[in-house]
Amino acid sequence: MHCPHCGKEIAPGVNFCPACGQNLNVQQAAYGAATPQPRIVRPRENRMAAGVLAGFAQRYGWDLGLTRVVFCVISFFTFPFGPIAYLIAWVMLPDAQYNLPPYTAPPPSA
How far apart are CA 69 and CA 92, in angstroms? Predict the structure, then answer.
């Protein structure tokens, strides 16, 4: 397991990263065990235009091809509103972060 803040390897089950000190506990103690819902983001893979439909399909676990077909059919019957909604979602939804490997320091030179 790796720290999402600094990328250093950590032992499973710890509450704080020993390298950077960030809190790794995602539950909020003040209001009970509230688990955060994942945000809808535009993924960097499986995009056709802007990745809006790929983001919705990924977030809700839908089939991507079926999501695109349903959106096209709905947009055909409600012509100006489908493309406008897509453009608004394109502007409002953030891009997904790059999947970078964890940082490893170079070996010390002798």
Answer: 22
- Its pTM surpasses 0.90: no
Taking residue 35's Cβ as centre, other Cβ atoms within 10 Å add up to 8
SS (H, E, C) the chain: CECCCCCCECCCCCCECCCCCCECCCCCCCCCCCCCCCCCCECCCCCCCCCHHHHHHHHHCCCHHHHHHHHHHHHHHCCCHHHHHHHHHHHHCCECCCCCCCCCCCCCCC
Calpha distance 38→22 (Å, rounded): 20
Token code pair at residue 101: 């490997």
10-53: pLDDT as tens digits = 887 787 888 887 787 754 344 444 556 788 999 998 899 999 99
d(CA 46, CA 38) in angstroms, rounded, equals 19
5 with 17: CB under 8 angstroms? yes
Do the Cβ atoms of 27 and 34 come closer than 8 Å?
Answer: yes
